[in-house]
Structure formats: structure tokens, C-alpha cells
């Protein structure tokens, strides 16, 4: 299908996963500093050393031909404790980054929060407490005051469902809490922080503000009423708990008893958006659990499709299902859609021609890009421009169009990099 005018070809990263330089420039500690090390004693302390090598990384993106780069701002780098005046050195780094992108002809797309909560705020209650929402709005205003004149698109919070479920419900991510349904206040406060940040960004000159929610089709294992209920329950938590209030101003009815809603909150959460970002990786298959289990569902493998190095099923039709369901559910309330993350991990630690020939990644991206364009989205951001620290998996998973040698920090483009460059050149 023909692409819309001004289609954004992009790549994505996040601060904690690539920047390194933990002790430089006045950066404060985050929840991930405490949660690390993870697998194989990996930490993000150096990561891809992007803090020092950002100019080289911009040069790679310019050669790639992308029109946009989605990065995240590290909250602890701007406000080391999550409150108070801005740390000038921290904002100066993002000033240099944004200037370099603009000079290279690449639109900056800024995410304010990609999971790196300042540690002091977490110790005061984190996303379980209401106070953090005002702190986040103040932080948003500080960043926008410095960067709004050059940033094209703004995303307040990346994948709040992952923060809620992986960070607070089951403890796989920082801050490592296992609260199950006790995590749901965090969901509401993430939504409220999103709404307050939208207001703060607009008040400080931001042109286009949206969101980036993770979506996963919920497939019941069987057609039994129990499995269909399990899938519906998961769909509510994963797909609707954030999209519903952001786009309609109302939570799913079954979720409201668990949420500390105050009068006026929903109007703030539903602040109008200029775009809606979809992060998609795979569908989820659900099976009902027995009586007395802490959750009414369990996730089970999807074995009939190829899998990535992470063991995630490769299902491009799942992206079509997500985009179709969003349009059916929200209609005119759904703003223009961007695919703000789409990517896959595969082995390839070396730089031999055989290891750089990542045909599986090319096939994955080609199929998902076709699904995205057939749905009429406004842009597509590959996760990721380079290999990075992959949260609880450390450096064991490689998502990059560009290989990173973590010992030497040498960057080496894979075949997928050249493929994406050719696609952009042909289609732009």
C-alpha cells in the first residue's frame, strides 16, 4: 500500500539501555541501578557508552537514512533525586543530542520515562504513591522548557503496563515487587502522571504529544468459557487498562475497585493526544487457572510459529489484530497511530560475515512493516538501532540493526541495517 505523506521511518532506544556513564554529569541512581546486576552479573553501567559516543551513533542513523530517532531522557540525569531544580549537566547532554539530530536532518522523538525511576522517589513509595505524579509533571516541564523548540514528538511514559506487571506485580523488573493485584495503584498513578505530563508539555511549548503503549493480542487456549474468561481478563489488564482511560476517560468497569481514583483524575488522564504509539512484539496465549490460584490466568507457549532468540513467537498478523482492534474499540477517539517499537532478538555476538547476515531479522521486520503499512500507520520505529542492555536479560539478547562489541564499543552494521537503509531509500 502507498505510505502516507511524511511517513516517519525511525529507530528507537532508551536511556538506561544504552547511555552508561552512571557516575558522570551529576546523574542520580535509579531503581535499575539497585535491581542490577541481572543475568551473568550484567549491569547498564557502561552499556553502549552512548553518553560519550552519541555523535558516532547519530552518524550511523544519518547513514541509515531514518527521519526520526526515538530516545528516552533519563529522569535521574535531569533530576538526580526526582525532584527540585534541573541538573544543568544532564539537560546539557540531551541538548547536544537533540542539536546533533537536527543538524543530521533527523527528527528527535523524546520519551520522558522508560522505566528508570529515581531511586529516592521509589523509596518514598514510587508509582504506588500519588505524590510521584506531581513530581513527574514538574520533570516534564523542565525537559520541555529546554527541548520543546526542537523535539518533533513527545511520549510521556513508555509501556506503563510493563512497569505495573513486571515491576510491581511479579517482580521480574525493577523495583522487583511481587504485589499481584496490589500493583494496580501503580497503573492508575502512571496514567495520572501521563495526563499531567501531557498538560505540562503543552504548557511548555510541545507541539505533538502522544503515548507508547504495549499491546498484545490475548488468545484463549481453547474455546471453553474458562479460557475465554482468562483471555478477556488478561486483555483488560494488558491492553485496556491504559488505552481506555487515555482515549475514553473511563477505566474498564472490572478494574475500578482496585484503583485509587480521585475526582478529576480521569479528565486529566484523558488529555487529548496528537498520536497513539503502539509497541508490539507478540501475542499472548492464556489458560484458565484452578480455584485458589493467585491469578485467574496463566501464559502458555505459542509453539506453532517461529520464535525469536527471546523465545517470542513471530506473528506479524498479531500486529494487524492489534491495529484492527484499536480502531474497532476506539473509533474516532483513536488519533493517528505510529508503531513506536517493533523488533526482535537473535543470536549474533560476533562480526563475521555469517553472524552479521541476520536474515531472520530482515524477514521479521519486512513482515511486520508490511502489516503496519497495510493498516495505514504514520510511522515505524525499529527496536533497536543497536544492541543494548536488555533489562532482566542483560546482554544475552541482541536486538540491534548494529552489532555492539561491549568490550571495545565498536559498532558494526548488520545486513538488516543495510536492508532497512535500502527500504527507506526506495520508499521515501
Overview of this protein structure:
By secondary structure, the chain is of the alpha/beta class. The chain has a single domain (8-427), classed as Glycosidases (TIM Barrel, Alpha-Beta Barrel). It has 16 helices and 13 strands. It has helices spanning 15-18, 31-35, 50-64, 75-78, 88-103, 119-123, 131-147, 160-169, 184-203, 225-240, 243-248, 265-269, 316-330, 353-356, 359-374, 415-427; strands at residues 8-12, 68-72, 107-113, 153-157, 212-214, 218-220, 276-279, 284-288, 297-300, 337-342, 379-383, 402-404, 411-413. A hairpin with a 6-residue loop joins strand 12 (402-404) and strand 13 (411-413). The longest helix has 20 residues, at 184-203. The chain is globular, with a radius of gyration of 20 Å. InterPro entries: GH (IPR017853), GH_1_N_CS (IPR033132), Glyco_hydro_1 (IPR001360), Glyco_hydro_1_beta-glucosidase (IPR017736).
Main features:
hydrolase; 16 helices; EC 3.2.1.21; alpha/beta; 428 residues; single chain; 3-stranded mixed beta sheet; GH_1_N_CS; TIM Barrel; globular
Unreliable runs, pLDDT <50, ≥5 residues? none
User: What is the arithmetic mean of pLDDT?
Assistant: 97
Question: What class would the helix/strand composition place it in?
Answer: alpha/beta
Q: Return the CATH topology.
A: TIM Barrel
Count the domains.
1
User: How many whole angstroms does the radius of gyration measure?
Assistant: 20 Å
Order of helices and strands: EHHHEHHEHHEHHEEHHHEEEHEHHEEEH
* Top CATH class: Alpha Beta
CATH architecture label name: Alpha-Beta Barrel
* Main β-sheet description: 8 strands, parallel
User: What sort of overall outline do the alpha carbons produce when their principal axes are compared?
Assistant: globular
CATH homology group: Glycosidases
What is the tally of helical segments?
Answer: 16
Total E-strand runs = 13
Q: Termini, distance in Å?
A: 13 Å
